[in-house]
């Protein structure tokens, strides 16, 4: 019996998916262990620089992450998905831009936009508008724009450029999906928070989203701090000084870091060696396509969708941000 219990326990552990909260626990455990084992080494200038950048990003971004989760929870619980199917016009030329602009009314990170877009698709919204909403909601909502203005004080053009470039990328992808006739097969719900009372569903949604958002914020802040403290400044300067490598490098970094859109502006602001246009690319690409979103898209819409969507979105977001940055920044 004991052997059977251990076998079941191992099976449950092996089947358990890693969650963002695991990252928080791992970083806290590593910090505590480093405090015990390293002691005086923690006073090294690079360690002090890492700590300063990490804490600054977390302290600045956490309130916006929590606010975004709170507003996203209220919208997901109170606004029926069928509303959008009734409100959007039939013509893709109008419905796609309107669906993109609807993202300004629905605060939430990219993790929340995936199940909402899947629900819209299941309830009759055509693929083009659903794709436009999928991309715009986490990129141009009020929480993200306010966070961007706080992260870039004295640069209001960055906020406008982020709005314009993200909306253009969302609308272009929506029109492309409408013209090609590619489907948006929402196979299943990514997260099911049940029916029950409004307060019960709100609590379940908020508890899941806050754990995921804060976990990803911690990972992103740790990554940005590592880049600032460990990567030689000469290398960063060499990459940042070349416009092509700067833009492509931060576009690739956005995919790898996979930071939530409510907090990515503070990480972009910390990369001060790079031009505003390169950092704009980071802000536009990140909410559109990153490693966690590729996994979510494959699980929700299928691998075929993910394989088409990720490279096209990355390229269009890169072009939209580059052109917009050249004009506005």
UniProtKB/TrEMBL annotation:
Q: Where in the cell is it found?
A: Cell membrane
Protein's recorded name: Permease
Origin species, per record, is: Jatrophihabitans lederbergiae
Q: What is the lineage of its organism?
A: Bacteria, Bacillati, Actinomycetota, Actinomycetes, Jatrophihabitantales
* Protein family membership: Belongs to the UPF0718 family.
Going by the UniProt record, its keywords in alphabetical order are: Cell membrane, Membrane, Transmembrane, Transmembrane helix
| Cell inner membrane in keyword set | no
**What membrane topology does the UniProt entry give?**
Multi-pass membrane protein
Fetch the PANTHER family from UniProt: UPF0718 PROTEIN YCGR
Q: Where are the transmembrane segments?
A: 49-79, 130-152, 158-179, 210-231, 243-260, 267-289, 309-328
Question: Origin, by domain of life?
Answer: Bacteria
